[in-house]
Amino acid sequence: MTQITQKNIKLASHAGFCYGVKRAVETTKRLKCESPEKNIYVLGELIHNSQVIKELEDLGILTVESLPENTQQSSSICIIRSHGASGATFEEIKNKGYELTDLTCPDVKKAQNKAIELVRSGCFLIILGEPQHPEVAAIEANARQAAFSSDEVFVANNIEALQRIEDIIKKQEKIGVVVQTTQRLEYLKEVLNWLLPISRELRIVNTICASTSLRMNEAKVLAEESDLMIVVGSKKSANTTH
Amino acid sequence: MTQITQKNIKLASHAGFCYGVKRAVETTKRLKCESPEKNIYVLGELIHNSQVIKELEDLGILTVESLPENTQQSSSICIIRSHGASGATFEEIKNKGYELTDLTCPDVKKAQNKAIELVRSGCFLIILGEPQHPEVAAIEANARQAAFSSDEVFVANNIEALQRIEDIIKKQEKIGVVVQTTQRLEYLKEVLNWLLPISRELRIVNTICASTSLRMNEAKVLAEESDLMIVVGSKKSANTTH
């Protein structure tokens, strides 16, 4: 005979979409609703969530990996997702004759703008994040476009990557640091403690988004209190995996 | 019968004056040697070392706490020591008709200039050091003169002092940090780890001087290796007490 025990299930109070993603999904749906005659393309998955992508497809909103030539009679819209995009991508969209709707998350936009500001003020820029992640790729592309030389921008997803360029770092007069919005604060702290004794001037913009911080802290507390924790999210999402 | 054991005495390889102090002492002596007819005043102890002060007195170089009216027929020189001085002090020296010789240590001058640069770029400035120490007082005075408001400059000699103004710090868009040249790197690290989660943008200029870092690291190693360690220096000196 199996014994029946009571189970408590706790839901994180900040579970669900963050405001940047919510804004992107709602705006995309509204655009289709307001202009059903227009073709709407999203460049890359709007969010890393296959159910949402399916829902958008059902509404006739297409997710594409690269933007097709615009051969349609009616006007077409191309959406930049919350992760942002490079200047070259913005150019391509306009050159192909698409209307552009930029749904880059305001927090990601801030990270991009701060990265540009730092390289323009003469900093060697370190972006802390996953080099392959579209948000990081867009921050990097924007920073490289603003920099005098591509040697001034470096992406690191762990301290070892930075240790390999220690000699280059030591030569810099000013070092700027921005962070992928979904990184862990502990990683930023670890990097700073390492950078501090070997650098003259450090400019750190803590671009980790408030939503992410809240969720990570809550996840930690829940994990400590619980016997089993289930994180619901795509394996492609930085929010799920960190 | 007492047993005779062999004792090893190790001398720190970086013991002795740092270059800023050496430069101040040598220049002061040279000035008197070149112009024996001139009265030479040093505003505050040139360095925290009573033997050197005595030696200067014997040469006729006077240490004064405040600058007397210049009633001498022959010209008089006033020396700014390696700790630096406020803009008001520089003014006073000129107004009283003294020739001015500025022997502020170049590393201290850098800390002053960086403090000015940070407040001018809109930072709330935190100076990490002893509020009563003349070097810190001079950095603070220079920064306050450059700031729009005196509320933008804060001196902290421990993390508790910063915790008391946590609400003010949280409101700041940009925070600048400079450090008294003789502070410990561990203190700077501790402050940054505390500041990081509660601030948006941090500009840290590591103004701890290389000489100080070397000596502190060497002192640590020697202390670990030795049964007894003797630090020779004035109790007034930050170098001796840290």
Oligomer: homodimer
Residue share in helices of chain A? 40-55%
Order of helices and strands of chain A: HEHEEHEHEHEHHEHEHH
Chains forming the largest contact: A-B, 17 and 17 residues
SS-derived structural category of chain A: alpha/beta
Strand fraction band of chain A? 15-25%
How many domain regions of chain A?
3
Largest sheet features of chain A: 4 strands, parallel
Number of strands of chain A: 8
Distance between the termini of chain A: 40 Å
Query: Under CATH, the topology of the largest domain in chain A is which?
Result: Cobalt-precorrin-4 Transmethylase, domain 1
Number of helices of chain A: 10
How would you describe the shape of chain A?
Answer: flat
- CATH C-level class of the largest domain in chain A is Alpha Beta
Main sheet of chain A: which strands, in order across? Answer: 2-1-3-4
What is the CATH homology-level superfamily of the largest domain in chain A? 4-hydroxy-3-methylbut-2-enyl diphosphate reductase, catalytic domain
- Round the Cα radius of gyration of chain A to an integer and report it: 21 Å
